[in-house]
Amino acid sequence: MSGAGVASRTAEPVSLPAELPVRLYMRALRQYHKLIDLKRLSSKDKVAVPSKEEERWRSKDEGALFKRWRRTPAPVDSTPNTATSTPSAQPSELLKFLAINALELSAPASDALLKSRSSEWFQLAGHPGSLAPAGPGTVWKRRAAGDHPSHNPERDTYEALAACPHMRGVIPRYYRELEYGGERFIELQDLLHGFRDPHVMDIKMGTRTFLEDEVSNAHARGDLYEKMVRLDPNAPTETEHLARAVTKLRYMQFREERSSSAEQGFRIEAVKLPGQPPLTDLQNVREPHQLAATVARFLGKDERARRAIAARLREIRDQFERSDFFKTHEIVGSSIFIIYDDERVGAWLIDFAKTRRIPGGAYVNHRAPWQQGNHEEGFLYGLDRLIHTIETAKLPAQGEEAATEPDVLR
Description:
Its EC number is 2.7.-.-. The chain is α+β, with helices and mostly antiparallel strands. It is built from 14 helices and 13 strands. The protein has helices at about 20-45, 50-60, 65-70, 90-105, 110-115, 155-160, 220-230, 240-245, 250-260, 260-265, 290-300, 305-320, 325, 380-390, and strands at about 10, 85, 130-135, 140, 175-180, 185-190, 200-205, 265-270, 330, 335-340, 345-350, 355, 405-410. Helix 1 (about 20-45) crosses helix 4 and helix 12 runs antiparallel to helix 14.
């Protein structure tokens, strides 16, 4: 579909979404009206020279301007109307169109937007610089390094899960893939948007957080031996000390065993508490009592948040087990992202750069121990343990309990 029908203008107002800054809204609306006028002229067989703005927007990836807002063609209303007007057909779709296109006017994020959102947006974990706030309620995530140009596992996974009736409610909303400045990004829901000074926790899931093909090379490497010794001089065996080299598999398993991943099936990557900088140096949080203490610190005295988070995680687990997608895919290196403030609670499944289809039509249950070739990664085993840890962590003595449960965001 190369274009949408010409939209008529009426006096019916369109309510302004609270999260969309007026400046961006009005700029997008003006550009939209310009294009309506151009389409109207062309529909009357008049010659119209495309403006620079139209050429710029049409040059975007896949003709994004007209493809992102689709509607049934409507006849042009020739009746004069002197009232201040905006397009009225499908107002919710129009607002979505305006919101998405407003992002392009400041992509990936203007200095003013970054400044205005600096108090509410941060990257808690992951590769530095891999995320950037793109606009009201969205972020851009950079394509994983090393991906083949024609193969983007994270994009493919988000598109598949967004179409899955079981999983679309437990992942960030996925909008599109795009190119900017010679790099590829995917645009996702900003999970922090709308929260006020929240508690945030990023939890890496699974007993194995590396792909099988990452450790298929059995060649022993000196650089990995040096890394191991720096972390723990007593970790290498006598044979490894003599060879001064270890295999990639040995090193990766050593890293998993140093955290809680190998035994518990999850590890706490980072925690952000209100008014404090993120806690990211959590490699030594390994034992069950340490995990429980970290969770208790995260929850503080908020029993209502604990109950809502546990319920949401059980919902994620239930939907995960219902999904046909996860029966045939290994979910390596994915995370559970938990947020709550005084009013709301949210938890989502994120990060799919290492999600892969199981070869040969095999199935996985996500709880069995990993052996080379079986593609089990322990995601559900870890989620079982995480839910148990949250439900049983001993919280500090609390005062009056809130009368109502917090809203659980999806």
